[in-house]
Amino acid sequence: MCTVTCIASINIAVIKYWGKRDEVLILPVNDSISATLDTDHLHAKTTVMTSSTFKEDRIWLNGKEEEIKNPRLQNCLTQIRKRARNSNQWKVHICSENNFPTAAGLASSAAGYACLVVALAKLYQIEDDITSIARSGSGSACRSVMGGFVKWCMGSESNGADSIAKQIVPASHWPEMRILILVVNDTKKKISSSIGMKRTIETSDLMQHRIKHVLPNRIKIIEQAIIEKDFKTFAEHTIKDSNQMHAVCLDAYPPVVYMNDVSHTIINFVHAYNEAVNEVKVAYTFDAGPNATLYLLEESVPEFMGVLDHFFPPGINLEQYRKGLTFKEVINSQELFNKINTTRQAPGSLKYIIYTKVGNGPKYLEDPNDHLLNKEGLPI
Ligand code: DP6
Question: Which pLDDT score is estimated for 104?
Fold first, then answer.
């Protein structure tokens, strides 16, 4: 019997992956860049176990047994077994859970598949690149296989061998970077990113402009901005890329809409704040849903939190509302509030916020008490 437990975090793209050139292998139409978040606040935890006594492969997700025949899961398992350095042909049991509510609409599949593949790679002693295996589970998962700022190179080979993720810089390169996730109250059922990107690539003319004429240059500029720690350039391109992804979605037919009124209010608010302080201090980005992720430097947090709480008053007590890292200080300046040209929202338009930072990537948990499967290979 052999058991491995691992945690991995979600990543938030600043240059979005949007559109596939191969739906089965999950090959993208563009390079993308993201930061992997700290595992302390938002992580998937996965235990994998093999044993001669197991009769079949099985998987439990967030406490419920799921279908092992899921094609994306099978892609990962098949590739892992092909690349295994040991001759372990025993069946595997997998148990995985998130430490954040799936209902929050945060990209859980990236953390989940990255965690699964990193755990299986240890179990099967795979030492070379595993990002392409994570990619075949969910595209963006390949960027969660490592920490810091990460680039997924789209590659050109038809079998996907060169469509892999590489670290641009580790988290320690830009330790001042902070992330604030604003979880927006929302009830609407969203279009999955797979369906949204398929429709966009098939029907949007603007998409061709994005891929051919915007992204090649934008990728180079933002990569350089990360290396030089040039926040202004980083923030401007992050904002523009999020808006362009949602613009091509709107150009799809029928249109693919992910943001809601609160999302648009956040966009206006961030621009009004940056204008009032006469500097680009905060960048926003939106994935396939209404939640906003903000990138900002630690030194901007006390002032920004003051204005955020003023314009988006919490609807619940602060202990429940503020998750993640502790806010050491929050500055309230009436003078600054007066300068910000936007309207104050009703309390509770944000469900809660998560304050976090860039992380170091997946971690193995060596303590047997951390395992999610017992000696019989069943969830604990
Ligand atoms: C908007 O990785 O969830 O978050 O490859 O179909 O599983 P599949 O899609 P997924 O798409 C993520 C899209 C995004 C942008 C990004 O993370 O780059």
Answer: 65
Give the ligand 1 atom nearest the CA of 72.
7
> Which ligand 1 atom is at minimum distance from the Cα of 12?
17
DSSP assignment letter at 84:
-
Cα of 52 vs centre of ligand 1, distance in Å, is 36
3-state secondary structure of 77: helix
273 and 353 part of one domain: yes
Cβ within 8 Å of residue 58, ≥6 positions away: 65, 68, 91, 93, 94, 377
Ligand 1 within 6 A of CB of 107: yes
Residues with pLDDT less than 50, the chain: none
- Residue nearest ligand 1's atom 12 by CA: 140
Residues 133 and 52 in one domain: yes
Is residue 378 domain-resident? Answer: no
Task: Give the Cα separation of 59 and 93 in Å (integer).
Answer: 6
Residue 241 beta carbon below 6 angstroms from any ligand 1 atom: no
Asked whether residue 184 falls in the same domain as residue 146, the answer is: no
Same domain, 206 and 335: yes
Instruction: Kindly report the CATH number assigned to the domain that includes residue 312.
Output: 3.30.70.890
| pLDDT score at 147 | 98
Residue 380 Cα to ligand 1 midpoint, Å, equals 31
User: Ligand 1 pocket, 16 CB below 6 A?
Assistant: yes
Residue 55: φ, ψ to 5°: -90, -25
pLDDT of residue 101: 72
Nearest atom within ligand 1 for CA of residue 287:
1
Co-location of 148 and 41 in the same domain: yes
Q: The domain containing residue 189 runs over which residues? A: 177-357
Nearest-atom number in ligand 1 for the CA of 137 is: 7
Q: Are strands 91-98 and 58-61 parallel, antiparallel or unpaired?
A: parallel
Query: Which CATH number belongs to the domain containing residue 7 in this structure?
Result: 3.30.230.10
* 189 shares its domain with 158: no
Q: How many domains does the chain have?
A: 2
pLDDT at residue 189, rounded to an integer: 74
Closest CA to 9 of 283, 369, 351, 362: 362
Same domain for 159 and 184, yes or no, is no
Q: What is the pLDDT of residue 13?
A: 98
Question: Ligand 1 mean position to 299 CA, how many Å?
Answer: 30
Does the interface ipTM go beyond 0.90? yes
